[in-house]
Design brief:
heterotrimer; A alpha+beta; B alpha+beta; C alpha/beta; A: alpha+beta; 7-stranded mixed sheet; 5-stranded antiparallel sheet; C: alpha/beta; 20 strands; globular
Chain lengths: 528, 398, 526
């Protein structure tokens, strides 16, 4: 076994993307994965015979188009169905709001709730797309090491020129004003319909442990907006074969560039000599050396388990300890004998309406109340649900005529203040099903199997600390030059040769591939 | 409300001077009589008894206790055997001194640390992810320092422990006057001496026994004034006088490294990683910005200054710790540093000063000038750089 | 049309008076017009019940800018701020937590609750001092317009840039955190004991409709830390005779420089001719003309009530309509027959300081939740002072006045019925909660005055009862306060200026906006 230029720790999607770009850049790359499969949190599992689920990460619509193109993922077999509607939002009174990819069509739907809002919706979309353009540009650069600006930063800032020009000078103030706002305040400025505001605000809180009244949720909305394949606040891509197929395709592309991938090869320690990363020791006793080590693990795991905590500066230890994770989403997987009837769709075109994301978020206050429970270590009694039925797009995921439904249910704290998850997991599942039954009364009758993963389960099975899929909360104090820790937001670490390439690094979570792509670019830039 | 030491019922009875000072929130006697000179002389000729309970004390236990402490301090604790005490500094990431103190190894994975400033948070913050148990035991122990040539005789009367066998910087656990105690052959006086830590409920018993037994050996309770004089003679630094804890100031100019404090010998750059190692390695390579040295003031020159005012020589009657400038030239034009504490040494009959000055002026034997104020007029008085400590009797190590 | 005055200031609040004093000091013939019969706006003391004097709305003086005290020589005009020497918070388990004027006692008290926190407390203060030092230059400048900065704006931005650069990375990182985090998360990084975290969080939520776990509140904490009392950071004080004394002192300084101050003179409208403010029309029909008009009112009144919409560009109107007020606090003033008996507070000397009804972080957060769902907190946070313990002249001998700042009470309490019913229910919630901590309170109340946010709006024309004339959130600070492009105290109407707390650097009894506005007016040659 020879020496490698780069060892990537972890075959999650970002690790694989980084590996592929590095190999494409001419480096000899080895990926080491603890599990027996690639994919990290983006996997497809046959939880029940014949039923295939995207167990943890879900939603294929965030993948960076550049990554998809550069790594030739389509020719490696990637298929993503572009679902339309973007959001189907059934309401307690039996009505529903549907957000379509087409803005005019959506405006028509909104008219049922507010004519004023329907008229304003296109302007809102147009402005947000401009703001999201700049946010998207920022995602693709390494954050400058404020307050020092290097020449390299200026070069990368050029990438922002286009989006900024589109934004226009007049809207620069608007961007600065909106970024730190609560999504609730933003939407209240624009709209009056609670139904519409609830549908949009959900994207501000889906990836964070906050309610829509929390400042910074306008940024999380823009984050989703900047990444999604719909040009709107919610992506609606369904990967054929589930999320595991996506990461398998990236792995295949990486191998085609010469990347070597070993599964079942857990890394015990990153070997640091005289402050420099020089290789890794495996749990099985093997060791490898390499010029560069890139960790796809989250920062807490990287700096407390992979790197010996005894050799870290006091400041680094303090910053790592202070990273907030706070996962609050549970995953509930249902094997369905048939599609349940939704009150809102009696006699309608069920297959079309349910083919995209289904949202139970009837108002901003509903979301806020769902969140408020978690402040006191309790799960929501009326949770916010984000539901996908991917088998409507890809029937191979379930036995013929049957379906798989995956629900992201919020909010469920990582740690319950009363009791523990072992004894309360089922009770929470019942709460979720009760909630769903208000919209689809016969849901319980069509469930063949079910499985619930609460945040501690996600940590145990996918190594996500506190069950946070984003490797750290996407809050304003943990974004851009503060992500993952202040002073090390440029994929580099205090140990020369050791890099971060996962979602804990800028720009953050979602199956985007962007942190991996950015990290690979910075690694190659440092190569001498 | 100030805190009261477990010996307060005794010290308050004895403190005729009623001169108390705040030491880490405790009332601490400056001197027991109206004059400190008996107490000073006792430490150098018989023995003095100091209440050192206000010291901060912490215990660290667990399989990674050694690893944690060795990560924090600048000395190499892997070389510290069970029963040994180590004097050391500890620094922040920039290699600036947070504090100095002692670490005693009581068993393989059980350590006791003493400190001048609160250190619990620093121990905790550096233990993220480690298997250790840290406890603030500052109030769980009262402490006495029995210091001076007859200290061993006094203590041997009260304990079965083999004090002859207890070498310099060693510690044992045994009973003193029937009270379970930790006895270490350490002190802050540069003399033969012991420090004894006991639980508060045994404190009065211990004090009474030591004072009773000590009477025949010339023991006197002694306060901070005498202590400060003897520690300067011994060349030992005092926090907030000779240096400021880097964690208690916002200003870079007030921080100092172990090299600048003349504590080079406490920095073991080649041990495993410790906080501040990289910065100290760099400083070692480039040389520190300051050096801490001893100065002997030219008393005859000072006498001449006084003569200008038709006055006899005045010498500081006790120690001082308010910094004064030091110059390269008599004209006081080239500032080279500051004198941070000084005292007239009755035993040496010298005016001795601890100063922090530029390295190029720090060679032993250099003649430099310290500011002295006589009748509100400033003068630069010649002084000679000497090695620390000023007073170093063989019995200190015996 | 003859110009009787050089300048007319609308509103005799402390900022309006400050602006007037500076203009008069610079030789301008200045007139202040106050709607009510008393001066001071929110900073006013009134004899509400015979013999009982209250600081009706605001209650502490910590943020008054020292340069204003110096330059207007306020001590000569009767400013006398007495330090608040202790705070005490009774806990739900019968214990209490107190801080004292002397550091040693406070350290011991913290140590009683947590050894680690006793070590962290001085470090926390030190860090906040550092942060306050870091933002101090920002407080003292006129915000540039990032869209069209102009030469002066660029200069300001360059200076601030250099200042920030000089702070070093660690400070900047900490500053990023403090600008964006929730105060609960921010103090979580420092303290372990719940009560210390809760009390440290308080200054992050006062005056905003946000809870301690709402991001953005750490900045509000810093805003309060910038208060300098006689140059000493973070020392809080009470004015002798109530907060109204501060306004009286500023008014006296203004008069000494020749300013004229009229009470009971409500302004109906600013008279605008050809895009230029030329005077004001009073509600009684009188018209008074002046070269310069400045409004100390909040942005809504300044732009939407006093002038016609057609005088303003659309984007400014839109921005002012978006500006958030959201009053979050009410006030209950009690005339007492005797001192209340707090079960947990054994040392009566502690009643000379402030009493905080804030027994835990959850208590505070739940109080916020109640308001966030509409209405007021069933068990609110209360900041209580009994000024008669140090200034007995405020009540008849042996009697006391108790001033209770209550949060949360939102402007819109519709679910509680009519205004009168709401006031009644709100007052009951306050007294019931208080009686859990001081059981004898119901027996000793002689008179009770309850002010809800809309009472405050009604009484002193603060929109939605917000005591800061607009929330102190990131999107409403610096060059966004009150609207982008109009943060430099000017308005689109020539010779019409803003000088209230709705401008940078924001609310609190700082007198900062009044001073900066006066300097801008003079700078324009007006």
């Amino acid at each position: 076994m020879g020496n490698y230029d780069v060892i990537v720790i972890g075959a999650g999607h970002n690790g694989l993307v980084a590996a592929a770009y590095l190999a494409k850049g001419g480096r000899r790359v080895l990926v080491l994965e603890r599990q027996d499969r690639v994919g990290g949190a983006a996997v497809t599992e046959e939880l029940f015979p014949g039923f295939h689920f995207s167990t943890c990460a879900d939603g294929g619509g965030y993948l960076s188009p550049e990554v998809r193109r550069d790594l030739a993922l389509d020719s490696n077999g990637l298929k993503i169905h572009a679902a339309d509607p973007v959001v189907f939002a059934p309401q307690p009174d039996g009505s529903h709001l549907t957000i379509w990819r087409d803005t005019a069509r959506t405006a028509k739907e909104i008219e049922a709730f507010s004519k004023k809002d329907a008229a304003r919706y296109p302007d809102f979309v147009a402005l947000m797309q401009k703001l999201a353009g700049v946010v998207g540009g920022l995602m693709r650069i390494a954050p400058p090491d404020l307050p020092e600006l290097a020449w390299g930063d200026l070069r990368s800032l050029v990438k922002l020129a286009g989006p900024l020009r589109k934004l226009g000078r007049k809207n620069l103030n608007e961007l600065l004003r909106v970024l730190p706002m609560p999504v609730a305040d933003l939407l209240n400025e624009w709209f009056e319909s609670e139904v519409l505001k609830g549908a949009i605000a959900a994207s501000g809180v889906r990836n964070i442990t906050w309610g829509p009244q929390e400042a910074g949720t306008a940024y999380t909305l823009l984050y989703d907006w900047a990444l999604s394949d719909t040009g709107l606040f919610r992506s609606a891509g369904v990967v054929s074969g589930g999320m595991g197929a996506l990461t398998k395709t990236i792995a295949q592309a990486a191998r085609s560039f010469g990347v070597e991938i070993q599964t079942g090869a857990g890394v015990e320690r990153v070997a640091i000599e005289e402050g420099r990363a020089v290789g890794v020791q495996l749990e099985n006793g093997e060791a490898h050396t390499a010029k560069v080590i890139a960790s796809n693990a989250d920062p807490r795991t990287t700096f407390t388990r992979l790197v010996d905590p005894l050799i870290q500066s006091a400041k680094l230890a303090r910053h790592v300890r202070n990273i907030k994770y706070r996962g609050s989403a549970a995953r509930i997987h249902l094997a369905l004998r048939e599609i349940p009837e939704f009150n809102a769709l009696r006699g309608g075109d069920t297959a079309t309406y349910l083919s995209g994301p289904i949202q139970i978020s009837p108002s901003m206050m509903y979301l806020q109340r769902a969140y408020d429970c978690v402040k006191y270590g309790e799960y929501s009694q009326k949770p916010y649900l984000d539901i996908l039925i991917p088998s409507l797009s890809d029937p191979t995921l379930a036995p013929s005529g049957q379906h798989v439904m995956s629900i992201t249910a919020k909010f469920a704290p990582n740690e319950l203040r009363v009791g523990d998850w072992a004894e309360r997991r089922e009770a929470f599942t019942e709460v979720v099903l009760d909630t769903l039954a208000e919209y689809a009364p016969k849901i319980r009758d069509v469930i063949a199997h079910r499985k619930t993963l609460v945040p501690p389960d996600l940590e145990a099975e996918f190594g996500l600390p506190e069950g946070n899929p984003n490797h750290g909360e996407m809050t304003l104090d943990q974004f851009f030059h503060m992500r993952p820790i202040p002073g090390y937001a440029r994929y580099r670490t205090p140990f020369p040769g050791l890099y971060l390439c996962g979602a804990g690094a800028h720009p953050g979570g979602g199956v985007t591939g962007i942190p991996g792509q950015n990290a690979a670019r910075e690694i190659l830039r440092d190569w001498s | 409300m100030p805190r009261k030491s477990p010996f307060y019922s005794r010290t308050s009875q004895l403190c005729e001077s009623q001169s108390w000072v705040d030491w880490s929130g405790y009332l601490s006697a400056n001197m027991y009589e109206l004059d400190h000179s008996h107490e000073y002389n006792a430490v150098r000729t018989s023995c003095g008894l100091f209440d050192v309970s206000p010291l901060y004390k912490y215990t660290v236990r667990g399989s990674q206790a050694l690893a944690l402490l060795n990560r924090i301090v600048t000395r190499d604790l892997t070389k510290c055997r069970v029963g040994q005490v180590v004097y050391t500094t500890w620094c922040n990431d920039d290699g600036k001194v947070i504090d100095d103190g002692t670490v005693a190894r009581l068993s393989d994975d059980y350590f006791r640390m003493t400190a001048a400033v609160p250190t619990l948070y620093w121990l905790q913050d550096n233990s993220f992810g480690l298997d250790v148990e840290i406890e603030d035991v500052s109030e769980a122990y009262g402490g006495l320092a029995l210091q001076g040539p007859t200290s061993r005789d006094v203590l041997q009367n009260l304990t079965d422990a083999d004090l002859e066998g207890l070498k310099y910087f060693q510690i044992i656990e045994d009973k003193v006057a029937g009270v379970p105690a930790q006895i270490s052959r350490t002190g802050y006086t540069g003399d033969l001496g012991y420090e004894i830590f006991v639980a508060p409920d045994g404190a009065e018993e211990l004090w009474d026994a030591v004072v009773d037994t000590g009477r025949a050996y010339g023991l006197l309770p002694a306060g901070n004034t005498a202590l400060d004089m003897v520690r300067i003679e011994a060349g030992l630094l005092l926090i907030d006088a000779d240096f400021v804890s880097t964690n208690q100031t916002l200003f870079e100019v007030q921080r100092s490294s172990p090299y600048e404090l003349g504590l080079d010998w406490t920095v073991k750059l080649n041990k495993d990683y410790f906080v501040g190692q990289d910065a100290l390695r760099a400083e070692k390579a480039s040389g520190p910005a300051w050096r801490t040295v001893g100065l002997e003031i030219d008393v005859e020159a000072l006498e001449k200054v006084y003569r200008k005012f038709a006055m006899p020589l005045h010498l500081p009657y006790t120690s001082w710790t308010e910094a004064v400038p030091v110059y390269r030239d008599e004209g006081a034009r080239q500032y080279i540093g500051k004198a941070t504490s000084g005292t007239w040494s009755p035993v040496l009959k010298k005016y001795v000063v601890i100063a922090r000055i530029k390295p190029q002026d720090a060679a032993v034997g250099s003649r430099i000038f310290m500011e002295a104020t006589v009748e509100s007029q400033r003068f630069a008085v010649p002084a000679t750089v000497v090695k620390l400590p000023f007073f170093d009797p063989p019995r200190k190590r015996q | 049309m003859t110009q009787e005055y050089d300048a007319i200031i609308i509103g005799g609040g402390h900022n309006g008076l400050t602006c007037a004093a500076y203009l008069a000091k610079a030789g301008r013939k200045t007139l202040v017009l106050e709607r009510r019969h008393v001066l001071g706006g929110a900073a006013v003391s009134e004899e509400v019940f015979p013999g009982f004097t209250f600081t009706v709305c605001s209650y502490v003086v910590s943020l008054l800018r020292p340069e204003v005290i110096r330059e207007l020589e306020l001590a000569k005009h009767g400013l006398h701020i007495m330090p608040v020497d202790s705070t005490v918070a009774p806990l739900e388990n019968g214990d209490y937590f107190a801080t004292y004027a002397d550091e040693a006692s406070t350290r011991e008290e913290i140590r009683r609750h947590s050894h680690r926190d006793a070590e962290m407390a001085p470090k926390f203060t030190q860090m906040m001092y550092e942060m306050a030092f870091a933002v101090k230059p920002i407080i003292g400048v006129v915000p540039p317009n990032p869209e069209k900065p102009g030469i002066r704006g660029l200069g300001t931005m360059k200076e601030l840039g250099q200042h920030l650069h000089g702070l070093g990375k660690d400070t900047l990182h900490e500053l990023t955190k403090i600008m964006t985090m929730s105060v609960a998360d921010f103090v979580e990084e420092w303290y372990e004991s719940d009560i210390l975290k809760a009390l440290a969080s308080l200054n992050g939520i006062i005056g905003t409709l946000l809870g301690p776990k709402s991001p953005g509140t750490a900045y509000v904490l810093l805003h309060h830390y910038m208060g300098e009392l006689d140059g000493a950071f973070t020392a809080w004080g009470q004015q002798k005779g109530g907060t109204g004394g501060v306004s009286e002192a500023i008014a006296s300084a203004a008069r000494s420089h020749g300013a004229e101050i009229r009470c009971n003179a409500p302004v109906a409208q600013v008279i605008v001719k050809n895009g230029r403010a030329v005077g004001v029309a009073l509600e009684n029909g009188d018209e008074i003309y002046a070269k310069t008009i400045a409004s100390g009112c909040d942005p809504k009144v300044t732009f939407r009530t006093l002038v016609d919409e057609k005088e303003l560009p659309d984007d400014l109107v839109a921005a002012i309509d978006k500006f958030k007020y959201r009053g979050s606090s009410g006030k209950v003033n009690l005339a007492l027959d005797a001192l209340p008996n707090f079960t947990a507070i054994k040392d009566p000397a502690l009643l000379r300081g402030s009493v905080e009804i804030c027994p835990s972080m959850d208590y505070l957060e739940r109080a916020y939740d109640d308001a966030s769902y509409g209405g007021f907190s069933e068990r609110p946070y209360m900041d209580i002072s009994i000024p008669t313990t140090s200034d007995p002249t405020m009540a008849p001998p042996g009697k006391h006045v108790m001033s209770i700042f209550v949060q949360y009470a939102r402007y819109d309490m519709a679910k509680h019925g009519t205004h009168d019913e709401q006031r009644q229910a709100f007052g009951d919630a306050v007294i019931n909660t208080l009686s859990d901590f001081a059981p004898n309170i119901k027996d000793i109340i002689l008179h009770k005055q309850v002010l809800t946010p809309w009472d405050i709006e009604d009484k002193i024309a603060l929109t939605e009862g917000n005591i800061f004339q607009g929330e102190l959130t990131l999107d409403q600070l610096f060059f966004f306060r009150p609207a982008p492009g109009w943060a430099d105290y000017r308005t689109p109407i020539r010779n019409y200026y803003q000088c209230g707390s709705g401008t940078h650097p924001g609310g609190g009894i700082t007198a900062g906006p009044g001073r900066l506005a006066a300097l801008e007016i003079l700078r324009d040659g007006n």
